[in-house]
Amino acid sequence: MPSRISDGLNLRAHPVYSHNKQLDLNLVKELPESHAWTTSLKDDYPSLDLCNNVETVPVVDLHDKNAQELIGHACKTWGVFQVKNHGISKRLLDEIESAGKRLFNLPMHQKLKAARSPDGGVSGFGVAPISSFFPKLMWSEGFTVVGSPLEHARQLWPNDYTKFCDVIREYQREMQKLAGKLMWLILGSLGITEEDAKWAGPNEAFEGGSAALQLNSYPACPEPDRAMGLAAHTDSTILTILHQNNTSGLQVLRDGTGTGSGWVTVPPLPGALVVNIGDLLHILSNGLYPSVLHRAVVNRTRHRLSIAYLYGPPSSVKISPHRKLVDQGHPPLYRPVTWSEYLGTKAKHFDKALSSVRICAPLNGFGDAKDHNTVTVG
């Protein structure tokens, strides 16, 4: 794992809240003012419940002969899709979920032994890194792994850390393989070949890529309509692969007008994984494949767990609109940027990050370059 990505993921712009402000959400019986976002989330951010006349997030079977075309359409129209027959075993998904539950079920004083360092550390336990952009705290806890989990696992379980480390490492290996496969399906849907993107390595390899693993816990909340699990945001990645347990909470913003627009819940499907487009793929596709705005809401009675694999390019590679997607009528919308550089930009500008690297406005309505400038919730 290139060290530069650790530098790029530095959280100095996102100070970790001091330990005395780290509530044990599993024990809280009433929503504290520090976590109360509004009188009702439904008043300001109406949610579209899934129903017969509302489109749902596309589901793609990777065994389908038309998988590449289906993924390309999902990327262009939604920025997110679910995949099945992806090759990740149910056994491994169950084990990573059990590892996450084991971690988050620890007493708070034990979890804080693996807290992110206050001087801008990346790996370890803490609140959502984007928390510093909001006046209220989020109803969630997180644990980030960049590279090896060994150091923090030893702090959490001094005499019994091996199993946790083994599961994390296996999950990282299998996710890297799947990310490579998905990346080439996505690039192929754009007409980009191995010869066009040599930095990506041979088909389905992506061995030079960089990644982080993010485990998220959303405890049952006494007033879920007034709390926010994770505020709305786009990912800084090329793509993110998410496993969620059987409790709903992930919502994506569906752009448009009428009954097909608004927040749409991504329902947990047994064995399926959620794939969402990040800002770097938005840039690489010259805005054709938009990074999706998403958030996590919480539940009154059920605990939700999710595991996100955040995938990016090699640390030294500059991502820019691909030459095959640029011509006289479709100029490049963004300047070249490395993942580390973009992460630093996101840490300063958050939802204005895409705008800050944009060099011109779209012509002829090509692409989706809205850049989420009007986002008020995250």
Automatic annotation (TrEMBL):
<dbReference type="InterPro" id="IPR005123">
    <property type="entry name" value="Oxoglu/Fe-dep_dioxygenase_dom"/>
</dbReference>
<dbReference type="Pfam" id="PF03171">
    <property type="entry name" value="2OG-FeII_Oxy"/>
</dbReference>
<dbReference type="InterPro" id="IPR050231">
    <property type="entry name" value="Iron_ascorbate_oxido_reductase"/>
</dbReference>
<dbReference type="GO" id="GO:0016707">
    <property type="term" value="F:gibberellin 3-beta-dioxygenase activity"/>
</dbReference>
<dbReference type="GO" id="GO:0009805">
    <property type="term" value="P:coumarin biosynthetic process"/>
</dbReference>
<dbReference type="GO" id="GO:0046872">
    <property type="term" value="F:metal ion binding"/>
</dbReference>
<keyword id="KW-0479">Metal-binding</keyword>
<comment type="pathway">
    <text>Plant hormone biosynthesis; gibberellin biosynthesis.</text>
</comment>
<keyword id="KW-0560">Oxidoreductase</keyword>
<comment type="similarity">
    <text>Belongs to the iron/ascorbate-dependent oxidoreductase family. GA3OX subfamily.</text>
</comment>
<dbReference type="GO" id="GO:0009686">
    <property type="term" value="P:gibberellin biosynthetic process"/>
</dbReference>
<dbReference type="GO" id="GO:0002238">
    <property type="term" value="P:response to molecule of fungal origin"/>
</dbReference>
<comment type="pathway">
    <text>Hormone biosynthesis.</text>
</comment>
<feature type="domain" description="Fe2OG dioxygenase">
    <location>
        <begin position="209"/>
        <end position="313"/>
    </location>
</feature>
<keyword id="KW-0223">Dioxygenase</keyword>
<dbReference type="InterPro" id="IPR027443">
    <property type="entry name" value="IPNS-like_sf"/>
</dbReference>
<dbReference type="Pfam" id="PF14226">
    <property type="entry name" value="DIOX_N"/>
</dbReference>
<keyword id="KW-0408">Iron</keyword>
<protein>
    <recommendedName>
        <fullName>gibberellin 3beta-dioxygenase</fullName>
        <ecNumber>1.14.11.15</ecNumber>
    </recommendedName>
</protein>
<dbReference type="InterPro" id="IPR044861">
    <property type="entry name" value="IPNS-like_FE2OG_OXY"/>
</dbReference>
<dbReference type="InterPro" id="IPR026992">
    <property type="entry name" value="DIOX_N"/>
</dbReference>
